[in-house]
């Protein structure tokens, strides 16, 4: 069994792009709570910083809008579910949890570095 993770990109104008990835293995309740505690303001994260893909309006072919676009995605624990689907990314539940721990309290710093590139 694997884990399907759904997460949302919502720009400042409230336009939305739904994202999802299936990781190898299952996230147990403890791992989910660890991930939740690592989120920025309890719900935001930057997928590429933890090994998940990102689909935004820019990746869909729209121009970058300095007023509306940003690097943060929303994650709700209710959008993390066990699935029999095959993994769509090459990251395990254990590695994903470690990546979130590594990023805890570093989201804003990562976002700032990313926008300078």
Tell me what you see in this structure.
The protein is of the alpha+beta class. The protein has helices spanning 29-38, 47-50, 93-103, 107-116, and strands at 2-10, 16-23, 44-45, 73-83. The protein has one domain (2-116). Strand 1 (2-10) and strand 2 (16-23) form a beta hairpin.
List key phrases describing it.
alpha+beta, 4 strands, single chain, 30% helix
Note the topology.
Layout: E1 2-10, E2 16-23, H1 29-38, E3 44-45, H2 47-50, E4 73-83, H3 93-103, H4 107-116
Antiparallel strand pairs: 1-2, 1-4, 3-4
Gap between N and C termini: 38 Å
Taken together, the total number of domains comes to: 1
Q: Report the average pLDDT across residues.
A: 95
Helix content: 25-40%
The tally of beta strands, per DSSP, is: 4
Q: How many distinct helices?
A: 4
**SSE order:** EEHEHEHH
Going across the biggest sheet, name each strand in turn.
Answer: 2-1-4-3
pLDDT below 50 for ≥5 consecutive residues: which ranges? Answer: none
Report the principal-axis shape: globular
Structural Rg: 14 Å
Short description:
The chain is an alpha+beta fold and 117 residues long.
